[in-house]
Structures are given as structure tokens and as C-alpha cells.
Design a protein that fits this description.
Strand content: under 5%
Protein name: HIG1 domain-containing protein
Radius of gyration: 15 Å
Oligomer: single chain
Pfam family, one: HIG_1_N
Distance between the termini: 14 Å
Helix content: over 70%
Shape: elongated
Organism: Pseudosulfitobacter pseudonitzschiae
Keywords: Membrane, Transmembrane, Transmembrane helix
Length: about 70
Amino acid sequence: MTSDPMFILILLACAAVVLVLITGLGGFAKGDGWASKNSNKLMRMRIMAQFAAVVLIVIAILWRKSGG
């Protein structure tokens, strides 16, 4: 399973979501002006990464269901 390219892509997409989320939370925890300047950008990046992860998961499920 870990040698499956789709599984690796899904793991990378999930890791990207976690990385962006932690970066955003860390910025808010600092409390300086960085968070206010970059919060919308980080939110958009997180949503795009989540969308990519969900799409990859759905594709993997449909692919396995069809016998691929």
C-alpha cells in the first residue's frame, strides 16, 4: 500500500493541509502583524490543499471500486 503512487499523493496532500494549518495557527499564536497580513492567503491555501486531498481520496476510492 505504501508503494502505491496514489496513496503517496494523498499523504502529501494531507501533509500540505497540516503544514498550512500549523503555519496559520502559529502566526495567530505569535500575535504580531504577520498573522493579519497573511491570514486570508493561508486560509485560501488551506482550502485549496483540502480540496486537492478530498479529490484525490475520492478518485482513489472510485478507482479501487472499479477494479483499477
